[in-house]
Design goal:
single chain, 177 residues, alpha/beta, fumarase, 5 helices, 21% helix
């Protein structure tokens, strides 16, 4: 069995290019949650020439919206949402520097082509273990679009979040094997 790679955000182009489909990774560092409504808003703001809520370069975006935080907790359960719902927006954001996406399920050909063009990677999170994934979150804070509730963009500090490289920057895709 292959060794699990430890990776840390922000990820360089070289870090991303070195990841291969099928590898397990333990991700640590800062990641951002963003779902449908936040993606739509970011793309609309880009079209208006507005700044993004965070620097995409080397950042990881987790397609997730946490459940409410229990008293004394850092975050509620947090698991991946279906990534295909962000496919209309992902190529636009990759052109702005987004290089790491985390979610579940297949991606469109347009997203895979944009990943190859921009040296990006898609990491799959295991659906159904949201309560366990929340244990990897060290801190959480809303950084944009608070009015969107669970779909607000949150900055998370994570430690050893277990993921699988689903599609690498060369377009190798575990869903197509």
């Amino acid at each position: 069995m292959a060794e699990t790679k430890r990776i840390q955000t922000p990820l360089s182009t070289e870090d991303i290019a070195g990841l291969r489909a099928g590898e397990s990774v333990l991700l640590s560092g800062t990641i951002y949650t963003a779902r449908d409504a936040a993606h739509k808003r970011m793309v609309e703001e880009l079209a208006l020439g507005e700044d993004m809520p965070f620097d995409f370069n080397g950042a990881a975006v987790f397609y997730a919206g946490p459940s409410p935080t229990k008293p004394g907790g850092v975050i509620g359960s947090i698991g991946p949402t279906t990534s295909g719902r962000m496919d209309a927006y992902a190529p636009v954001l990759m052109a702005q520097g987004l290089r790491v996406m985390i979610g579940k399920g297949e991606r469109s050909l347009a997203v895979v082509d944009a990943m190859k063009k921009h040296t990006a990677v898609y990491l799959a999170a295991i659906g159904g273990i949201a309560a366990l994934m929340s244990a990897c979150v060290v801190s959480a804070r809303v950084v944009a679009y608070d009015e969107l509730g669970t779909e607000a963009i949150r900055e998370l500090m994570v430690a050893d979040l277990l993921l699988v490289v689903a599609i690498d920057s060369q377009g190798d895709n575990v869903y197509k094997r």
